[in-house]
Design a protein that fits this description.
Rossmann fold, alpha/beta
């Protein structure tokens, strides 16, 4: 298994929280957006969550309708550039990526934004889906729950919303994990050695 990795900045900027929860991705079934909105709604009376949804896709109208009917403060920011996404990640308390297998069998690989969030020292609340546990270590760099488990997803969101020290610790450990296992420059150098070894073997 070889992970491509993401570019890393030398340091992580101080966080000025605007959003408690941020989601980044296509508005399609496998991203678990409906489960996210249901989890946020479960917490509406307990926590004044500020939720940002970044992206677009075939479920946009359904998501917008559900967000408008929610008691939570949910803002759809649309599709944004990578620089704009990075800006909003830096202004968030946690990334939520509640991915699941879609009804047609469609699944994730490893969502790049999960690694990008960890690189920004952002704790990740996600699901035990596909490659996500390779980048989100439950209880160490983020919190994981079973696919489609809205109650557990809500509990994990609430845990980080209430416990800022825990959120900070998970984010710091997530950054360290990415530096070790998902740094694009390091991963590219390792990949190059694989090609060199194969080329050397072929020339013998």
């Amino acid at each position: 298994m070889h992970h491509i990795g993401v570019p890393l900045r030398a340091s992580v900027a101080a966080r000025n929280i605007v959003w408690d929860v941020i989601f980044v991705g296509r508005f399609v079934e496998k991203k678990g957006l409906i489960e996210l909105l249901e989890a946020v709604e479960l917490l509406a009376e307990r926590a004044p969550l500020r939720v940002a949804l970044i992206g677009d896709g075939p479920m946009k109208d359904e998501v917008a309708k559900k967000a408008a009917a929610s008691r939570a403060n949910i803002i759809l920011l649309g599709a944004l550039s990578p620089a704009e996404v990075a800006h909003h990640l830096a202004a968030s308390r946690m990334l939520v990526a509640p991915s699941k297998q879609a009804s047609d069998g469609d699944c994730e690989g490893l969502p790049t934004v999960v690694v990008e969030a960890a690189a920004a020292a952002l704790p990740v609340v996600a699901t035990l889906h596909s490659g996500i546990p390779e980048a989100v270590l439950d209880g160490r760099t983020g919190l994981l729950s079973p696919e489609g488990d809205v109650a557990r997803l809500a509990a994990n969101i609430m845990m980080l919303f209430e416990n800022h020290n825990l959120a900070s610790d998970l984010g710091r450990q997530g950054r360290a994990f990415v530096e070790n296992a998902f740094d694009m420059s390091k991963q590219t150098a390792i990949l190059e050695t694989y090609y060199e070894d194969i080329s050397a073997g072929a020339s013998r």
